[in-house]
């Protein structure tokens, strides 16, 4: 049985560093420990290699992403915009 109700993994910090920072760390670490799927082989074996660099443990492919998240809200938005622009260009041609 875990003693921490809300703080989860950041319980290890006790009362130190301030609640806002602990919450931020929790959000990041929760995402780090939940494995997103590889865009190539669809196995949930993604690990963070470095800032913005992710790799798949199964097929060994490396790809870029957010610093602490594989896919950030920004990236999703940017992809959407790129797709829309491409479609617009196709219509013009
Ligand atoms: Zn893979």
Structure description:
- The chain is an alpha+beta fold.
- It has a single domain (8-92), classed as N-terminal domain of TfIIb (Single Sheet), CATH 2.20.25.30.
- Helix content is 38%, strand content 13%.
- The protein has helices spanning 19-33, 73-92, and strands at residues 46-50, 53-56, 62-64.
- Strands 1-2-3 form a three-stranded antiparallel β-sheet, with no helix packed on it.
- The model has no long low-confidence stretch (mean pLDDT 85).
- Bound molecules: zinc ion (ZN).
- Residues 38, 40-41, 43, 56, 58-59, 61 line the site of zinc ion.
- The site of zinc ion has 8 residues, from loops.
Proper CATH architecture: Single Sheet
Q: Averaging pLDDT over every residue, what do you get? A: 85
The main sheet comes to: 3 strands, antiparallel
**Tally of separate helices:** 2
**What name is given to the CATH topology?**
N-terminal domain of TfIIb
Distance between the termini: 63 Å
What's a concise summary of this model?
Helix content is 38%, strand content 13%.
Features:
93 residues; alpha+beta; N-terminal domain of TfIIb; 3-stranded antiparallel β-sheet; 2 helices; 3 strands; elongated; binds zinc ion
Topology, pairings included?
Blueprint: H1 19-33, E1 46-50, E2 53-56, E3 62-64, H2 73-92
Antiparallel strand pairs: 1-2, 2-3
The structure holds zinc ion (ZN).
């Amino acid at each position: 049985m875990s003693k921490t109700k809300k703080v989860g993994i950041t319980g290890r910090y006790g009362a130190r560093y301030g609640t806002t920072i602990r919450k931020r760390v929790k959000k990041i670490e929760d995402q780090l420990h939940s494995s997103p799927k590889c865009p190539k082989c669809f196995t949930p074996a993604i690990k963070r290699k470095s800032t913005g660099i992710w790799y798949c443990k199964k097929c060994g492919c490396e790809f870029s992403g957010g610093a602490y998240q594989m896919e950030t809200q920004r990236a999703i938005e940017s992809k959407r915009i790129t797709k829309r622009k491409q479609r617009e260009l196709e219509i013009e041609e």
